[in-house]
Fold:
Amino acid sequence: MLAGWATREGLDRADALRAAVDTLALVESLPPIAVLRPPPGTSGAALPRTAGSARSGSPMLDRVRALLAKAESTTFPAEAEALTGKAQELIARHSIDEALLAAGSERGDLPGGVRLSTDAPYAGAKALLVQEVAAANRCEAVWSDDLGFATVLGWPADLVAVELLYTSLLVQATAAMLRGRAERRPGSGRRTKVWDESFLNAFALRIGERLRTATEAATDAADRAAAETAGADRLLPVLAARGEAVRERLDTLFPGVTRHRLSVRDAEGWSSGTSAADRASLDVGGGRKPRQVPGRPDPR
Structure:
C-alpha cells in the first residue's frame, strides 16, 4: 500500500516512509474524542445503547422551527420576544411529555449526545451559549476548545431543543451585537473584539437565566396539572432520574472535565449584551487543555 502511494505521488522510499511516520505522529497527538454512538460498520455490541433521536419531522418541531425563523428575521424586539418565548414554551412542554412517555417503557437506554460547532471568532462565548442553553434544557455540555466544538449530552427531545435554540440564539445574538456596535459612542475606547466578546458573554448568561425561568415555569405548570390526575407522584421523580442519568453519562465519557472561568474585559459591552438579552426576553408564563465546561465569566 505504501509503495503504491509513493509511486502515485512520485516519492522515493525514504520520503514515503518519512511522510508515513509524520502522519502517524500527528494522529497519535490528537486528543481523544468521546464515542457517542457505535461507529459505522460496527455492531455496537460493546457499547451501551443510547436513546435515539427525536422525530425530526414532527409537527411540534416544525412549529418551533417556524417560530424561531420568524424571531431571527424580525427587526422588532417585542415580536422576537413573543416568537422565541412561544417556541421555548412548546419545547418545554414537549420535553416533559416525552419524559413521562419514556418512563413507562421497558427500554434500557442511556442519554445520547450531539456536537455543536464553537468555531472562531468568539469560540468561548459560543461555548458559553451552548452551556447556558443546555443547562436550561436538562442537558450537560462539555467544550473541547482545541477541537472547535461542544458536546451536549441529554435525552432526544432535549438535545433537539438545545440544537434548535442554540442555532437561533446565536443568529439573534450576532445580529444584536452588530446593531450594538453601530450604537457605540464615538471614541469609546476598547477595541471591537474585546467589546464583542463581553457583549456575547453577557447575552449568553442573561438568556440562560431566562431560559431556566421558562423551563421552571413549564415544569411547575405540568406538576400542578399532574396533581389533578393519577400522575401526581410521577413527574418530578422522573425528571430527577433522567437528570442523574445525564450526569452519570457525563462522568463516563468525560471523567477529567474541568470548569473554565471566562473573563469579561469591557463593561460597556457587558451592559449592552445584557440589555440585548433582556430585549430578547424568553420569560413565558497553547498546549492542549482538558475539555472544559464554560463557567460564569468574571467581569472586570
